[in-house]
User: What shape does this take?
Amino acid sequence: MKKKLAQKSIYIGEAILTSYSQIFFTENRILAVVLFFVSFIDWWMGLSGFIAVITAIALSELLGYSSITVRRGLFSFNSLLVGLGISTYFSHGIEVIFLIVIGSAIAFFITIFLMGLLAKYTLPFLSFPFVLSMWLLLLSFPAFSGIDLNAEALYPSNMFFKIGGGPLIFLMDWLNRVFMDTGFDTYFLSLGAIFFQFNILSGVLIAIGLLIHSRVNFLFSLLGFFIAYWFYSFLGIYTGSLNYTYYGFNFILSAIAIGGYFLIPSRQSLQWSLLLIPMLVVITIGSDRLFAFFGLSVFSLPFNVVILVVLYAFKIRYNQTKSPILTIVQQKNPETNAYLFDSQPVKEYAPFIFPIRLPFIGQWTVNQAHNGVHTHKDFFRFAWDFIIRDTASDKEYKNEGLLPSDYFCFDKPVIAPASGTVVAVADTVEDNEIGVANTLQNWGNTVVIKHQEYLYSKLSHLKKGSINVKVGETVFEGQTIGKCGNSGRSPYPHLHFQLQSSQEIGSPTIFWPLSEYIVGDETKLGFVQKGIPSENEAVSNIPASPLLQSAFKWNPGDEFLLQMKSDKKTSDFVIRNEIDSYNQSSLLCLKTGAKLYYENNGKTFSALNYRGSKRSALFYFYRSLYKVVLSDDSNLKVETHFPVHHLYRFPLLLIQDFAVPFGIFLKGNYMLSYKENTQIFNPKQLEMNSQILGKGKQSFFSAQIIVHKNREIEIWLETPKNLKIYLKWENKLV
Assistant: This one.
C-alpha cells in the first residue's frame, strides 16, 4: 500500500512539474522547478496556477486518460495558464478559486477536443485552449458582481515589499536600472509575461532556467525577440508598447517552436524562424487592434496562428527531404534532436520511416536504375530493374542465352519487400521468347502490395502461374509471392520493382529509398542504412547470422547481468529489457536508471538513444555495439555516424550547443568490422572489432567483441587514456 502511494505521489508530482515546463515544449525538471518557483513570486498567482493544474490532472484521472500523457503535462499546461491568467485579473477570494476550477475544466475539455481534431493532421493544439478559455471568462466578467479586479497586479512594488521587504525592492530597482533602455528590459518582461509575471526578476530567472535546459532555445529566444524589436523600430512602432502590452513572448515562443522544436535545428530552421517574425509582428499588431473592440487581449493568439499555419505548410510539402526537416522523433531537447539527426548516415532520407527492402533473396544486380536510359523516364523514373549476374563471367545467362531458362534470374523467388496487403494481381500473361516484348500487356504478371496509406510496391514481369498470393491476402516481409519471369514488355528475364501511391497496375512511381541492404562484391561489402541502388550495383538483403540473431533477441521483462571490470574495481549492473506503450524497446540499468533505446528488426541491432548516467556499464555497451548488422560475413564493414553529445564534454560541447543552428563541427564516426570465422557451419562464437573516431581521426575508444553461441557477449575496451575495461553480458537471470 505504501509503495503504491509513493508511486502515485511521484506520478502526480511529475505531472505537476511538466505542466510548467511543457509551456516551453520540454519536460526538463530543472526548468520546471524554476518556472514553478517563478509562479509563486506572487503567492496568489502561484496558488491559482497550482489549483488549476491539480484540477486538470484530477479530470484526467477521473476520465481514465493515458497516464503517460498526463505525466507529460499535455492535458494540464493550458489549465495552468488559465489559472495564472485568472489570478492576474481577479483578486483572491473563494469565488475566484471556484472560477479557477471552472476555467481549468473549460481549458481541459477544449484541450481534449482540439487534441482529437488536430491529431489527424499531426498538428499540435499549442495554447489555443488557454486563449479560448480566457476569452470566455473575460467576456463573462461583467456578470460576476461578487468578484473584484486584482489591484496588486497594477502596483507590483507593494507585492514585492510584502514578499521580500526592502532588499527585494532594491534588487528589482537595480535590475531595472541595469537593463533600462537596452531592450533586455523588455525581453525579460516578455519572458516573465509567459507566466503572467510582469517584472524583470521573473524574466531573468526564466532566462537562466532556459539557458540551463537548452542553449539553442535560449539563443532562439534572444534572436526571435530582438528581430521583432528591431522590426518594431523599422516600421516606426513605439517599442515601449511591448512593455505594457507584453506581447513580446509571442516572438520568443515562435522562434523557439520553429527554430528548435518542430524543426531540426539548422541554418534553415534559423532562417525560417527569423523570416516569420515580421509576419508575426503584423499579425500581433492587427489582432490587438481588432480584439480591442471587444476589450480582450490577444494573449498568445498570434503565436498559435503562425505556428499552426507554418507547420501545416511544412507537413504538406511533396519533398520532405528538403531542409528544413520536421522533427519526427521528439526528444524534447533541440540539441539532442540535432545530434541524433546528425548521427543518421543519410539524413536526407530521415522522413522515410517505413522500411522497404529488396524484393529478392541473394545477390542481384541493378540493370536499370532511377532515370534509366531505356524505360525509367518521366512518370516511371523512380523504378529499378534487377537481374542476376555470374561473378566470374559477368554474364546474366548461361549457354547462348536464347531461352528464358538460360537466365540466372528466371524462376528465382520474388519476395514481399515489406508487410502489407495484396491489392492487385495479374497472373495470366505468357512469358516472352528472348528478344520479344509484349507491349500490349506492358507490365506482364504483376503483384501490387499496400504497405500503408499512399505507399504501395509493384513487382512486375513475373513468371506465368508462379504467383501464389491473392487479392486481400496479408503478406509478411520476406514471404515468397512469385517467381521472376519474362512477361510483358520484357525482352529478357528481369524483375521490375517500383513504389507508387495508388494500387492500380501502371500507376506512376514515387521516390522512396530502400532500407538496410548490402552492396559490393565478395571481396568488399558495405552496409547501406537507406539508399537508392544505382545502375550496375550488386545488392543483396542482409544474410542473417542465427548466432547474432539469438544473442540480440530479447523479450520484454528479460533481465541480464552486465559485469564491468577495470584496473580499479569490479561492478555488477542488472539490465532489464523493456517495451513502452509507444512500442519503443529499451534496456534499463536498474542500478543507475540509465536507458538505452534500441531497435532490432531481425536484420540489424541499432542503438537509437542513450539517457542517463555515463558511469553505467550500459553506456560502454552502447558505444561498443552502436550498430550491428546481424550477419557473420567477414568481408562486411559497417560505418555510420555516432551522436557527438555522447562523445565530447565541456567546454567543446557547450560551444557546439550554441553553434547547433549554424552547423555541427564536432564529428563522431563509428566502425564495426567482422573477423573471419574458421568454423563455417554452426560456429560457437563470432568476433568483431568496433571503434569510434572523432574530429581529426581522434580515437575515443576501440573494442574487441566476442559473441558466444550461449548468448553471452564479452567486450574488451581501450580508451585513449589507456583505461582498459572488460564487459561481460551474461545470460538471463534466473
Q: What stands out?
A: The first helix runs from residue 2 to 21.
